[in-house]
From TrEMBL:
InterPro entries: MFS, MFS_trans_sf, Proton-linked_MCT
GO MF annotations, alphabetized: monocarboxylic acid transmembrane transporter activity
Keyword Protein transport found: no
Pfam hit, one: MFS_1
GTP-binding among keywords: no
Domain of life: Eukaryota
Protein keywords: Membrane, Transmembrane, Transmembrane helix
Transmembrane segment boundaries: 27-50, 62-78, 90-108, 169-192, 204-228, 235-255, 261-283
The protein's name: Uncharacterized protein
Amino acid sequence: MGLIGGFLFGLCFSCVGLFGGQLWHFFIFMGTTAVGVGLLDFACFMSFIVHFKTNYQSLNSIRKLFAYVGITLIPPLVELLRSKFGFNGAYLILGAICWNGVVCPLLLKDDKTHQKCSCSHSSKKKSYDLLNGNTSGDSHKDQDTQTKDKGKLIVCNLRLLSSVTSHPLYSGLILTEGLFYYNFVIWAIFLVPFGRSVGLKPSAAVFLSTAGGFGGLIGKLVAFLVCYVDKMNAISAFLVPALLCNCGVFGYIITKNSLSLYIFSSICGFSFAFSDTALSGMVPRYVCSYHLRQGAAIGYIVTGTFMQLGGIISGQSLKYNKRDYPLPPAFPVTKMASAIQKCFAHTLYCYDSRSTTPR
């Protein structure tokens, strides 16, 4: 999986440089690049969980820190390459740089140990019997019975894929993570247009994003320190960042001073970056090792869906808001998402006794 992701990562950047002259080409190749990045990140995520069980949180925070620095450096790197080599040359060089995504997965080792299920399933034996074809009845069934059995097999596969629901708190964690990424996408898309709408010049509005990036870097460093001293829990991972984010977004409403807006952007960037590290670090606490891989995959799907939802809502808000003031139309939805996120944080904290047994 990581090898495929790394291959797509480098290939699509190179294809943008070769064939990205039209807008729809650019969208297709960059969308495929996002798929490759997701596959590569998932492979690295699983490798960290499998091979660093005891100190996973602190090492994962280091991984997130370097990933954040790399993402932050890509836009200025692209601009530098474009100024010297043009659009096509810039993306060809960037694609060549990103080919290291093919080499990195080769260095990752798969976990060869057999994991046993540590949680109870009332229908687990029945499910495996269906998958193995060990169903009772005559071996010579008619076509209707075979069709019925195929339907049962499909349902059984869906149940196995969704067996993460046997850990209710992990399901809450996934939803909390999805709401976090939804809020992040809306904030990132609205930031610069919001700055222009309150009277900032385009060159000054861009610094709102810069301030958010600086706050995010501080958030990654603080998250590493909290993980290093083993103080990461549901309150510090979910509730505190959600409150900080609400304060930052509320600051956008009450003031139009440029310096204050930069400060509030830094606060929002800090909260989002801190939550990003904290959420991924909390995964092994709420799901057993047997369901870890498929649970992580479901988590990636859910968070990706919420990110798309945030992008759709952001686009519609920008499209139909005639005043060019994009924050208020999505603000109630964002506040509701943050409220749900805080409720899940409280629930997770109440049931989290910091034991090693997943719930």
